[in-house]
Write a structure and sequence with these properties.
By secondary structure, the protein is α+β, with helices and mostly antiparallel strands. The chain is 34% helix and 22% strand. Helix 6 packs antiparallel against helix 16 and helix 11 (315-324) packs across helix 13. The termini are far apart.
């Protein structure tokens, strides 16, 4: 029997190999003028992935750069452009003057403070009818710019004349009239402040408390802006006088006893607004370690309430009050009143300084509490603090530009009064106001009590020591018509002695 053969085991088919991963690139190859061939070329997968990664990284980098550039452009236009545009050293603005006659600066009652005329040679001449009286406030327009001439330069070199007139002027190679800058300054009040300050260096700021309008602003020493180009070399070489410095907004002074407004407010807040328990026995001197505080001219005031201590400007009482205050709270209060802060205004200004800290020595606390030490303030800032008291605790943003008008007298833009914030409560403002009324009625501002109008105020005598020279600046801050305040004043007369001796008579003339 024939042996059957066992069938062979089927061989397992070989596992197909995974084709090598590759990328295909199509390329057209020209063989001759009439013939082309399409070829496929493989690219190793690794090279493709690497190239894709590189492209992704490049995309991310360029996207990030684009976003950064876009962000910078937005930031520049919102934050920097207005500042650069109005900068007096920005010469690109001058190109606007090729087709526009610089607009006038006028008060709300139509008094012209600056205008442009054409002389006999055809040149434009900027003219300031009241010369020195508005020197720092209106400023000048040659040898650079200052004051309103600088901050409102773009406005003055813009014209909202009718389009047809602009086209006609361009066609005849003539210029159109620029817009008018209408300011809040009151000419009569400005003159009164200028002449009242007299020969003293210093400053006066007058404000309307319920709107924030700047009604007058004077700084001395001063100059005639009509002749600034002739005296320029002399002015810039005289570093000592600070002739071009607007002391009203940029001058930093120790506030002296005018600062007791804030020291008193800090004590009231710490004691629930009730001053009935306050009683201080003034012996004319108080001492801590190596610091001695005395009352002016060695005065001994005896037993005083808070109101009496304020009205008498008792240094020993307020130095002692300062020692009782929580120092962190005192600093917070002062900074809420815009010390170490930028003021809410477009007017160019310096930042007032308050340096007291939690660990400050007792001597520093005492001197700070009476407005001495390292505390410095601008007259504009003191006017704003006083304005908040007069306006039931509410501070309005100070402004000097009322509106912009076209050459035809139509309103282009207008400034509306704007609240900055409530710096103190109505009750606090009323209490501080009562202290300031007592100062005029029976205290250091008594010279202002014999008038047909009512005044609330605070005097200050700020001692200073600069380069070995010592002296006393004379301060007064206050407001008139105490039942419905209409005018706030801040006055400083450099080296004027006590506030009652010099600043009060200056304020009286202005009131």
């Amino acid at each position: 029997m024939e042996k059957q053969k066992k069938p062979k085991r089927a061989e397992r088919p070989e596992k197909p190999q995974k084709p090598e991963s590759k990328n295909v690139r199509i390329r057209v190859v020209r063989l001759s003028d009439d013939e082309e061939e399409i070829r496929e070329e493989s690219v190793p997968a690794g090279d493709g992935r690497k190239r894709n990664t590189e492209l992704s990284l490049l995309t991310i980098v360029f996207s990030a750069m684009f976003l950064l550039l876009a962000g910078y452009m937005v930031w520049f236009h919102v934050r920097l452009r207005p500042r650069i545009t109005s900068n007096p050293y920005n010469t690109k603005q001058d190109t606007s003057s090729e087709g526009i006659i610089r607009g006038p600066i006028v008060t709300e009652d139509g008094t012209v403070l600056a205008s442009t005329s054409i002389d006999y040679t055809g040149n434009e001449v900027r003219y300031y009818p009241y010369s020195n009286i508005y020197a720092h406030t209106v400023g000048y327009e040659t040898n650079g710019r200052s004051g309103l001439e600088a901050t409102s330069n773009k406005i003055l070199l813009t014209s909202h004349s009718p389009l047809l007139e602009q086209i006609r002027s361009a066609g005849s190679d003539s210029k159109v009239q620029g817009d008018s800058l209408v300011v809040t300054l009151n000419h009569r009040l400005q003159q009164a402040a200028y002449y009242a300050l007299g020969s003293f260096n210093g400053a006066v700021v007058a404000m309307e408390p319920d709107s924030g309008k700047i009604l007058a602003m004077v700084s001395k020493p001063d100059f005639d802006p009509n002749s600034i180009s002739y005296i320029w070399d002399e002015v810039v070489s005289d570093n000592a006088s600070g002739l071009l410095l607007n002391r009203a907004t940029q001058g930093l002074y120790p506030p002296g006893s005018t600062f007791k407004i804030l020291t008193a407010l800090a004590w009231l807040r710490q004691n629930g607004g009730d001053d009935s328990s306050f009683l201080y026995d003034c012996q004319g001197m108080v001492q801590r370690n190596d610091v001695t505080i005395t009352c002016y001219n060695g005065s001994v005031h005896g037993s005083e309430t808070m109101q009496q201590a304020f009205a008498n400007s008792c240094n020993t009482a307020f130095a002692t009050i300062g020692l009782s205050l929580n120092r962190n709270d005192f600093r917070t209060l002062c900074e809420s009143f815009l010390f170490n802060r930028t003021l809410p205004t477009d007017i160019l200004h310096s930042q007032s300084r308050f340096s007291l800290k939690k660990d400050s020595a007792d001597g520093d606390v005492m001197t700070t509490s009476i407005g001495q030490g390292d505390t410095l303030v601008t007259p504009l800032h003191m006017a704003m603090i006083t304005s908040a008291v007069a306006n039931a605790g509410v501070l309005m943003k100070p402004y000097m530009i009322s509106r912009v008008e076209s050459p035809e007298g139509e309103t282009v833009t207008e400034t509306k009064p704007e609240i900055y914030g409530e710096l103190m409560s109505v009750d606090e403002a009323q209490k501080i106001g009562e202290y300031m009324q007592a100062t005029v009625r029976e205290g250091t501002g008594a010279a202002l009590s014999y008038n047909s109008y009512s005044v609330a105020g605070k005097t200050g005598s700020a001692e200073y020591d600069a380069d070995g020279v010592t002296g006393t600046h004379s301060w007064f801050v206050g407001y008139s018509n105490v039942d419905d305040p209409d005018l706030v004043l801040a006055v400083i007369a450099e080296d004027g002695g006590t506030g009652s001796a010099t600043a009060v008579p200056i304020a009286q003339q202005i009131f």
